[in-house]
Structures are given as structure tokens and as C-alpha cells.
Design a protein that fits this description.
Blueprint lengths: L5 H7 L5 H11 L2 E5 L23 H10 L8 E5 L5 H8 L4 E6 L4 H14 L4 E6 H5 L18 E3 L4 H9 L6 E3 L20 H12 L3 E4 L2 E2 L22 E2 L2 H15 L3 E4 L10 H11 L6 E5 L6 H9 L2 E9 L3 H7 L5 H13 L3 E8 L6 H14 L3 E6 L38 H14 L6 H8 L27
Parallel strand pairs: 1-2, 1-3, 3-4, 4-5, 5-6, 7-10, 10-11, 11-12, 12-13, 13-14
Antiparallel strand pairs: 8-9
Helix pairs in contact: 1-2, 3-7, 4-5, 10-11
């Protein structure tokens, strides 16, 4: 079939068959997907790429690529990560492309805007789009000239999850502008597995192997959340995935895990979901499938303390789960009620006991600094930690990211690029009773008291200077039977 110029193909979309469009698009378009993996560090220092949950590879870009790979020739599809590639390498490569897409969090967007401006300066005809939490919260901000100088390089901001929107952008040749939105995909099993070769997953797995002694990768099992946590962008506001909870079938999840395990020799899977046990009955459904098919590669993930019962805990272990990461959050009944998570002291105590009895390693998240926090509520939290005895614990300070209930317009001018819930000067949050300095003092005191149970991320933040503490434990390879090497993402 004769290949038409792309401009011609663009005009006939909607009046010809899809195969013709695909053939035309493949002949002309060059695409780049970019993400910022974090700050680089010098040889011998701590890798900040591996700050949370071992290593977070860009599964989002892997999904976007797979969802559009029938439209673009593989030689014309590129990916770069701001941790592994230099800014100049990214700018030089992306400047040769027709369409560039940035995927990232609020903290990654300032870097994205700087890189986008440099790409636009070299290639004025390049069509540049951004997506992720930042653009989904306030897409208009990314389209204003004064935000993204020079000349406002961002052509469009994708709101919500990206597969359908990115596909529509590619099919149109990037002619869309402004806010780009397509409704979520109802059936998650219909979405192809992410392209892990495209996102160069092996680089991330190598860091995990070096630092943890095991090859680790992540997997998504659901999208959305039924909880209304005020500190989370997917809690009350439902920033990315909207209100309906959508789950992949256990067989679909298992199929992907098998493929990835065989191809990359993965030794541990970390579920990237807000929580694995999304609702009563989900653990039973998932674990029965894993057990029935003889799955024995270890895995772990975020688990709600409610719902969690003895049967769930035992089934998790039988299905290969070895780590559960649970939000203790606070020992104050008032604070727990205020944050909107739907947990209480009784459910927390029960969950930590039954998971210990089942032989699961228990990772505990403690959140300091919600509005009702006082020295008394922190004392209650301290007592609860001593009572439930988690295997590892992390202490973060509330950072009210845009898209969360706690965010206000007064925080618009904060240095979000350097905001960090574990410390640093960019987070200026205070409670009704404690200043930010008070919260940092309490965080340091608790870190010192529970120094034998600290999660890996706390040790890394100490070595990076984010948390000002006198403790500085060497990292090395940690026995995963003694300490969990994971932490939740923002």
C-alpha cells in the first residue's frame, strides 16, 4: 500500500480504516516518553534513585508505550529516565522527536518544565505533553506561559490516567492542545502488560540487587481506592483514577508475574497499589488463585489493617506473600478519625498481631503532623508502636501535596521540587499545636528511640542529609528476614 504523508493521514482520520492510519503514522512519527527518576549522586554515596519501595521503575511509561505500539514503529519510540540519562542526553534525543510526553509526580514537574523548555528551544515544532499527579491536579498551571518559559512549551496536559489520552494524542499527530482527557478504561484486563524492556527495567532491578541482595520489580493489581484519606491525592480528591475501584483479575496479575519472573529472574514482586486488600474478599480471591497455580515467588504490598482477619493473614503467607506494609499512622483515636482512613486502635492491634502470627514481616508507616497532632498524641503513637512491635518502622511528617485535602492555596509558593515528607526545609507544615521545628524534633527523638527497627528509607534520608539526626547506620546489604526494604510512594 502506498504510504501517504503524515499530514494527509491526519486529515483522513475518522473516514478510513484504522490499518491505513497506522501505516501512515508508523512511517512518520517519532515519540519520546520521559520521567525524572530523582537526583543523581556521586560514586560512593547513597543512590537516591532507590529512596522508596526499593526502586520505582516507570511502569506508567511502559503502559503508555504498550497501549500505542501498534501505531509507531519500534525504532521511532524512545524512553529516557532523568536518573540514568543526563539532561543534555535527554534534550538532544527528545529534540529530534515529533511528540514528547512527560510522566511524573508534582515534585518532578519543575524538572519536566525546564527540560521541555530546552526541547522547545531546539525544536519549535515539537509537540510536548505532560501527565501525572501535578497536571491532573491543576492542568491550567502547566499551560500558562509564565509557568513554563520560554514561550510556554507545554502544548497539552493529560488529566487522569493516560493510556487512552496518549493514544488519542498519537492518533491525532499531536494536534491536540490544552487539557486532554479520556475516560478511564473499565476493564483493566484489557490493557496489555507494560513494556518493561522499553522502560529499561533491568537498570532498576540491578540497583535493588546491589542494595537489597534480590532483584525486585513492581506490579499493579488495581486502580483507584475506596478510602478517603485526607493526606493522599487518591484518597478524598480521587485525583488520578476517579471514584470507581477497578481491579485486575487474579489470573491476569499472575500471568504478568509469571512472564516477568521468567524473563528477568525477578526474586521479589512489590505491589504498587495503594492497597492490595482493597475490599473484603479480595485477599481470598487473589491468594486462592496464587495457591491453586503453585506460585512461590515472594511478594509484598501495602495492606489495610481493616479489612484484615486471621484467614487473610494465613492465606497471604500460603500464597507467597512475605511482607505486609501497613499504616499504623497514629496512636491517637482522634487523629485516626480525623485523617479519614477508616481505621482505629482495635483494627490496628488486631492486624499487627495476626500478621505476626502468620509469619509475615510487618512494615509500619507512622505519619506525624496531622492537624490535631500534639505532644500527647505523639506519646500515644509511641506507646502503640511499643505495643504492636512492628518489624520495621518509618516516621514521616505530613507534606500536604497538591491534590490532597490538606493542601491550600497558601502553599502554592512552596518549593515542591524539593518537598519531602521525611524532612527538609521545603516542607513548612505545622499543626494546630506544634510548629514544624517541633515536629522535626519529635521525628528525630522517635528515630533515635526505635533505631533498631528503622526502615531502609529512613537510613537513606539520614545519609542524604534530609533528616537531621546524629544516627548514621551503614547501609550495605540487609537481611530481608530482619528488616523490610520497602516504603510507600507519594
Amino acid at each position: 500500500m502506498k504510504r501517504l504523508p503524515f499530514q494527509t493521514a491526519r486529515h483522513i482520520i475518522g473516514i478510513t480504516d484504522v490499518r491505513t492510519i497506522r501505516d501512515c503514522v508508523k512511517s512518520k512519527l517519532r515519540l519520546t516518553l520521559l520521567t525524572d527518576g530523582g537526583e543523581k549522586t556521586h560514586e560512593g554515596h547513597v543512590d537516591s534513585r532507590s529512596l522508596a519501595f526499593s526502586v520505582w521503575e516507570s511502569l506508567a511509561c511502559g503502559y503508555l508505550k504498550r497501549y500505542t505500539e501498534d501505531l509507531i514503529h519500534p525504532d521511532d519510540y524512545f524512553f529516557a529516565d532523568g536518573y540514568f540519562e543526563t539532561d543534555e542526553e535527554i534534550i538532544a534525543g527528545a529534540s529530534e522527536c515529533d511528540i514528547v510526553g512527560f510522566s511524573g509526580t508534582t515534585s518532578q514537574m519543575p524538572w519536566s518544565l525546564r527540560i521541555a523548555a530546552a526541547i522547545r528551544a531546539r525544536n519549535p515544532s515539537c509537540r510536548i505533553f505532560v501527565g501525572g499527579y501535578g497536571p491532573s491536579v491543576s492542568p491550567e498551571a502547566f499551560l500558562k506561559d509564565e509557568v513554563a518559559v520560554p514561550r510556554g512549551p507545554i502544548q497539552g496536559a493529560v488529566v487522569g490516567e493516560g493510556e487512552r489520552s496518549w493514544r488519542s494524542i498519537v492518533l491525532s499527530g499531536g494536534v491536540q492542545s490544552g487539557i486532554v482527557y479520556e475516560p478511564p478504561i473499565p476493564d483493566l484486563d484489557s490493557i496489555p502488560f507494560p513494556d518493561r524492556d522499553f522502560i529499561k527495567m533491568e537498570r532498576c532491578a540491578a540497583i535493588a540487587k546491589r542494595e537489597e541482595g534480590r532483584k525486585v520489580t513492581s506490579i499493579w493489581g488495581n486502580r483507584g481506592c475506596l478510602r478517603r484519606c485526607k493526606f493522599c491525592a487518591d484518597g478524598s480528591p480521587k485525583t488520578i483514577y476517579g471514584a470507581p475501584l477497578r481491579e485486575r483479575s487474579p489470573l491476569d496479575i499472575l500471568a504478568e508475574m509469571r512472564v516477568v519472573h521468567r524473563k528477568y529472574d525477578i526474586e521479589f514482586f512489590k505491589f504498587a497499589d495503594a492497597e492490595v486488600n482493597t475490599r473484603p474478599g479480595r485477599i481470598k480471591q487473589l491468594c486462592e488463585t496464587f495457591i491453586q497455580h503453585g506460585w512461590d515467588v515472594p511478594w509484598g504490598g501495602n495492606m489495610l489493617v481493616n479489612p484484615m482477619d486471621e484467614t487473610d493473614a494465613k492465606m497471604l503467607y500460603a500464597a507467597g506473600c512475605r511482607e505486609v506494609w501497613m499504616g499504623l499512622e497514629s496512636g491517637s483515636p482522634e487523629v485516626l478519625a480525623h485523617i479519614g482512613k477508616g481505621t482505629n486502635l482495635a483494627t490496628i492491634r488486631k492486624a499487627f498481631k495476626i500478621t505476626k502470627d502468620a509469619g509475615l514481616l510487618r512494615r509500619s508507616y507512622v505519619l506525624l503532623g496531622t492537624p490535631l497532632e500534639s505532644r500527647e498524641t505523639i506519646r500515644q503513637t509511641e506507646e502503640l508502636i511499643e505495643e504492636v512491635q512492628p518489624d520495621t518502622v518509618s516516621f514521616s511528617i505530613l507534606c500536604p501535596y497538591p491534590g490532597t485535602t490538606y493542601y491550600t492555596d497558601e502553599m502554592r509558593g512552596w518549593d515542591w521540587e524539593h518537598a519531602d515528607e521525611y524532612g527538609g526545609e521545603a516542607n513548612k507544615w505545622r499543626t494546630n499545636f506544634l510548629s514544624h521545628a517541633d515536629l522535626v524534633d519529635e521525628q528525630i527523638r522517635l528515630i533515635e528511640k526505635f533505631s533498631g527497627k528503622l526502615s531502609r528509607i529512613i537510613k537513606k534520608k539520614q545519609q542524604l542529609g534530609v533528616i537531621p539526626t546524629s544516627i548514621s547506620a551503614p547501609l550495605g546489604i540487609i537481611n530481608t528476614n530482619e528488616i523490610s526494604l520497602t516504603d510507600r510512594c507519594n
